[in-house]
From TrEMBL:
This is Serine hydroxymethyltransferase. (6S)-5,6,7,8-tetrahydrofolate binds at residues 117, 121-123, 242. It is found in: Cytoplasm. One of its GO terms (cellular component) is cytosol. Residues 4-381 form the Serine hydroxymethyltransferase-like domain. Its cofactor is pyridoxal 5'-phosphate.
Amino acid sequence: MSSLSSVDPQIAELVKAEERRQADTVKLIASENYVSKAVLEATGTVLTNKYSEGYPGKRYYEGQQVIDQIETIAIDRAKSLFGVNHANVQPYSGSPANLAVYMAFLSPGDTVMGMGLPFGGHLTHGWSVSATGKWFNPVRYGVRKDTGRVDMDEVREIALRERPKLIFCGGTAIPRTIDFPAFAEIAREVGAVLAADIAHIAGLVAGGAHPSPVGHADVISTTTHKTLRGPRGAMLMATSDEHATALNKAVFPGLQGGPHNHTTAAIAVALKEAATEEFKAYAHQVVANARALAEELAARGFDLVSGGTDNHLILMDLTPKGIGGKPAAQALDRAGLETNYNTVPFDTRKPFDPSGIRIGTAGVTSRGMGEGEMRQIGAWIDQVVTALAKGEDEAEHAITRVLGEVRELTSRFPAPGL
Ligand code: DSN
């Protein structure tokens, strides 16, 4: 970063500080990961200088000799990795990708059905504060209070009553396997398009550690930077030509201008990495680690939504521990354990000060940590949260001690790309 350091030392120092922070912290944010050095290098290239509105072979600017090849490679790798006929690698991120799904299949005012945000859905699945909840008619499903799981009979009942044109399955805080065949059956019954938002689990799907929506969902939407371990970006995939054309038109010219070619190149690199045997082992280890961490936390009396996890994600309600999610997440962060506070199903508190925290194992698994380290992390979470519930002094003592131990752990497991 010698040029950055001399042109803008202030920003260069902050980038270095963030790198140090990432190296020293146990990243437990379920939607984050560490990209490889190769992915990182691809994002910092001259490809950022080029405009290329359109698609390979059909652009609105000259000079696409190289960009067309890069985008075609990214598309082909996405098709091969996920086993789909069509892929669009241009959406800037998950929200624009999902908006393109609306643009492709709905008109303003049409009914969309998605999982409610407090139950684990995403803003763009029709939540009230999102454009998708304001410009369309949203109806929502949730999870059962007694099981913390989606009740497919309830989903069917709502779908039959409301007749949505589009159904989203998937979300941001779902610790359990998504039943794609059951959603597909309901969508077929009511004549809706089924969109599977696999942003969180894309890497697990690619690595064979979660069932694939291919063959069930009409459209698959994903970000590329969570368990898939690519750059900040997104993709839309489909198996039918009709849907592929509608999605392509919705992304460009419907919603976006020129694709971010440096991101497209980095997505291509990440997709190559995700097609390896090593990545398959990684995906399975992410799930094994989440299970080990969930078991440790449950054994220590934490209330896990749905009682555990099938994937990379754990959602827990801290109410029985006598502490809110926000102070807990803040204390854990000071102890070097980075999580996010999160609403839990049927939360009685507000989203900015909810009852839960969300934890994920994609990042720690990228650092090579295994089940033993997960049990240690579970113990640290317990020590900090329990001390916090007892008072400030106890908390300070626990945070200082755990932070020292976390530093020792992170120094033994260097993060990729840093
Ligand atoms: N912000 C992402 C997450 O944390 O799950 C979803 O968009």
